[in-house]
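Extended Data, panel c. Modelled sequence:
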Amino acid sequence: MKRCFLLLPLLALASCGKQTVRAPGDYDLSGTLRGDWNGADLRLALVGAGLPNLLTNTSTLAQTPLQPGSAFGVDLPSLPDAIGVYQVIAFDDRNNNATYDPGEAVARNSQWLIFSPRGGEIPALKVPQNLPGAGEELLPALTVEQGWNLYDRAQPLSGTNPRAGKKVTGYDLSR
């Protein structure tokens, strides 16, 4: 009986182990990382702005190991900030703090992830008056569905842009 009690802490620790790495296509969002990274300590992060938190910068998402030229996958939070505009980026975590810091090498694309707690219209977002580029349109008025939506800024608005982002593939990152 005494031995059983000694095993309980070990079992508890074992249950806290890392999650199993899945194939990239088994994650919420997948793509390929391109570019020359020369020995970089690569991570994926969800960065953006939303409410109630002003800025989001997290790399604690479930994800595949990141290698240049390889496919990657990452799970999106089931409920991030109440509403927000985000991107998944790849970055060289030079200081190993698991957070994207300005100045670190980064790869991104023109696709934005928009989270909405309800479907409907999102008004256009403009650069605030106290910032450089004041009044410039960051995001046009969009119609979105509840949950994650994918908007490609390089493509015109249409019935498929933005689109619901329940499963996002082809989210390629390049620098």
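The chain is about 10% helix and 35% strand. This feature is highlighted in the accompanying rendering.
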